[in-house]
Recover the amino acids of this structure.
């Protein structure tokens, strides 16, 4: 046995049999370890997902037993024709546009500054990350306080400076930017920590060497830091876009989707249709359409990561 | 050396034993907990904490949606109930008004953990009945706690029946009313010798009264919430449109039957009030309250619940029926009722139901407290009493209960519903001058037709 093996080794034979036999022997225990996760994942993600897909072809009602009457693509057609669905989708996209660039640029800038701090770096790390650990309801309540018309901190503060504050959450044009400001304050810490970790991975000698060659701090940032953080940025962008597309809590608590539906995100639309109006079949169809959007975003990310890996 | 080793071994052994035992004890504990749960239902404190159901000794979960002045009065009533029934552990939960409340109530009932008793608007209770989420209240049930249907306001009681069966006990009727500033109206010469407002029973008289009030205030004649409010414009429209005998929906919401001529007449009149500068076109709810409270307007149109606000603000005011401009002999005004309902339990318990009915009766008995908040009590033994007649200005508009026009039947209709949002937001655009009545009416019709065409999920 051993002789044939050694005899064959220089050829390609072992390289085939080796990797194939190895995972085979590891397969079962691996599944064993994965089982707790897989069972839950099947029961609570895949299962309900498939049930949702099935439901989307029926006029299922929350308060009626069974799937209800078959609707074919009726629910999808209705969602496509519903101005409320498109408005919700647009509000979600608008929120994503308003939050993603600041959450990336500010996180990067603050991480850069915190990384430069010689003393008390722990303090900055804590200070920026702290809001992120708050539950959405707490964040919403804090900011409802701040945004209170006339009496709120922001309004009184701006009045002292001689400015009149807009009706933050009451004006349809201001409500979404106000929610975006709240969200930026709340979730900046997460991206900040990712960037800080990325910064600490960059070898210090690159900066030393470039300084010897006479590079200015700006050049160091543009030519060393930004390119070497490329992968972190890809990750941050995609996580951020997906997180922003999933927005629900802030609107539900702070504006209830108002004023006049100006801040109702697509998820709240689905929630309203499914749970308030009892139309779970239609809500399932709308969430399937939204799922396609999220899937497309994830596919783009996948493509970018692959290209980066090839380049590296 | 050897003794040392022996000691060490013993220690290890006992350590292993304890850890083994504790693991077994833990397992036994877990299994025991599970068995206990199946055997005793919700009797363990841990498990009862997880659900709304409490121990059999007498707990009662009650949900309501009252904030502001209503919330304060409801708390007084709850406290009075607790004082009178110390053996019953009443758990009262207040949730945000409107769609969120009804969503939570429906989901909790579907999930088998509803409260034992809950508040629901009459117009929304009917949707809950259609969805089979409420317990029927038989005459025997009600008689058991001393309630007889003929002791309740008949308009509200009949409006709440579904196929002749009762599911909701009306606590009150809350009509749209007219508040007026007594100082301003006196200066404007609008009060009669007894100090009451002279009847404004035609569009001309109404407009004239607002004009005179405006001359006194130098600001506005009347104020009403228009911006960022959908219910108020709808209530105002529905009152006058109802006086003309107009209907919006028919066939349980499956048909839109707006009478264009009547609706245009009302909308044009409403718009004329803002275009003439008698009513400011941009105030929101809080702004309209503030304007009336500070004497910038002679009249204010809203539900009667704002009474406490102006009493607190010490505004010289009184209240009366929302003007009957078009009804002639037959008065009509938009209204709804707060009703008390018992959600369907997966496992009905007659004792719990009895306790819930007892709480309903207790609230009816406390109608005086409730009426102080402006609502017209539905409990006739109190409403017909001298005590209520002496309660002013509440008794001025008690007749509104008989002329109450409830939001039309339909799965998407009722207080704070999609229906009110669709109609109210279009009426608001007429009031603030953004749209002409014909355009707004066309939009309202098309949005309502969309809702009417959607197959009812109930």
């Amino acid at each position: 046995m051993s002789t044939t093996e050694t005899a064959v080794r220089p050829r390609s034979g072992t390289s085939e049999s080796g990797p194939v036999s190895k995972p085979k022997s590891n397969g079962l225990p691996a599944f064993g370890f994965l089982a707790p996760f897989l069972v839950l994942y099947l029961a609570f993600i895949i299962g309900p997902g498939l049930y949702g897909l099935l439901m989307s072809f029926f006029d299922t009602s929350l308060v009626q037993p069974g799937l209800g009457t078959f609707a074919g693509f009726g629910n999808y057609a209705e969602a496509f024709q519903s101005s409320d669905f498109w408005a919700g989708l647009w509000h979600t996209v608008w929120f994503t546009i308003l939050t993603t660039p600041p959450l990336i640029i500010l996180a990067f800038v603050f991480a850069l500054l915190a990384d430069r701090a010689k003393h008390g770096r722990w303090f900055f790390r804590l200070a920026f990350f702290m809001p992120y650990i708050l539950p959405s309801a707490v964040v919403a309540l804090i900011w409802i306080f701040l945004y209170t018309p006339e009496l709120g901190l922001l309004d009184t503060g701006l009045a002292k400076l001689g400015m009149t504050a807009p009706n933050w959450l009451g004006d349809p044009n201001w409500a979404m930017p106000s929610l975006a400001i709240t969200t930026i304050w709340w979730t900046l810490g997460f991206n900040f920590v990712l960037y800080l970790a990325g910064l600490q991975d960059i070898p210090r000698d690159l900066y030393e060497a470039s300084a010897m060659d006479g590079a200015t701090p700006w050049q160091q940032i543009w030519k060393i830091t930004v390119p070497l953080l490329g992968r972190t940025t890809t990750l941050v962008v995609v996580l951020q876009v997906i997180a922003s597309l999933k927005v629900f809590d802030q609107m539900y608590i702070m504006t209830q989707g108002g004023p006049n539906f100006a801040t109702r995100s697509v998820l709240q639309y689905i929630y309203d249709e499914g749970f308030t109006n009892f139309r779970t079949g239609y809500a399932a169809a709308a969430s399937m359409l939204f799922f396609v959007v999220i899937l497309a975003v994830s596919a783009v990310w996948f493509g970018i990561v692959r290209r980066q890996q090839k380049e590296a | 050396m050897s003794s040392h080793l022996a000691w060490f071994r013993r220690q290890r052994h006992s350590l292993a034993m304890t850890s083994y035992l504790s693991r077994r004890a833990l397992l036994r504990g877990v299994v025991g907990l599970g068995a206990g749960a199946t055997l005793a239902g919700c009797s363990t404190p841990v498990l009862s904490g997880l659900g709304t159901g409490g121990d059999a000794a007498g707990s009662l979960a009650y949900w309501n949606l009252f904030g502001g002045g209503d919330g304060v009065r409801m708390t007084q009533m709850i406290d009075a109930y607790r004082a009178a029934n110390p053996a019953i552990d009443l758990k009262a939960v207040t949730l945000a008004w409107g769609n969120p409340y009804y969503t939570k109530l429906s989901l909790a009932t579907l999930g088998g953990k509803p409260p034992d008793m809950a508040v629901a608007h009459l117009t929304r209770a009917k949707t809950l009945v259609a969805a089979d989420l409420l317990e029927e209240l038989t005459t025997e049930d009600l008689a058991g706690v001393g309630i007889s249907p003929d002791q309740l306001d008949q308009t509200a009681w009949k409006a709440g029946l579904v196929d002749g069966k009762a599911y909701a006990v009306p606590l009150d009727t809350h009509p749209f009313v007219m508040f007026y500033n007594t100082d301003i109206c006196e200066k404007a010469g609008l009060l009669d010798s007894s100090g009451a407002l002279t009847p404004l029973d035609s569009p001309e008289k109404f407009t004239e009264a607002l004009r005179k009030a405006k001359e006194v205030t130098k600001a506005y004649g009347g104020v009403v919430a228009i911006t960022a409010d959908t219910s108020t414009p709808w209530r105002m429209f529905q009152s006058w449109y109802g006086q003309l005998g107009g209907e919006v929906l028919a066939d349980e919401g499956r048909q839109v039957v707006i009478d264009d001529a009547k609706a245009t007449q009302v909308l044009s009149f409403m718009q004329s009030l803002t275009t003439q500068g008698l009513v400011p076109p941009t105030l929101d709810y809080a702004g309209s309250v503030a304007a009336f409270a500070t004497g910038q307007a002679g009249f204010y149109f809203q539900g009667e619940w704002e009474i406490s606000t102006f009493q607190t603000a010490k505004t010289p005011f009184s209240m009366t029926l929302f003007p009957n401009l078009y009804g002639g002999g037959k008065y009509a005004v938009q209204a709804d009722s707060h009703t008390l309902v018992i959600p369907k339990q997966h496992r009905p318990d007659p004792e719990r139901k009895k306790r819930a009915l007892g709480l309903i009766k207790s609230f009816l008995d406390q109608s005086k407290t409730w009426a102080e908040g402006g609502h017209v009590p539905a409990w006739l033994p109190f409403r017909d009493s001298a005590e209520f007649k002496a309660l002013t200005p509440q008794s001025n508009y008690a007749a509104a209960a008989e002329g109450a026009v409830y939001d039309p039947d339909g799965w998407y209709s009722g207080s704070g519903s999609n229906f009110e949002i669709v109609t109210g937001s279009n009426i608001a655009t007429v009031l603030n001058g953004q749209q002409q009545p014909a355009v707004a009416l066309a939009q309202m019709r098309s949005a309502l037709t969309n809702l009417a065409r959607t197959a009812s999920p109930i």
Notes: Chain B touches chain A through 23 residues (CB under 8 Å). Confidence is low (pLDDT under 50) at residues 1-55 of chain B.
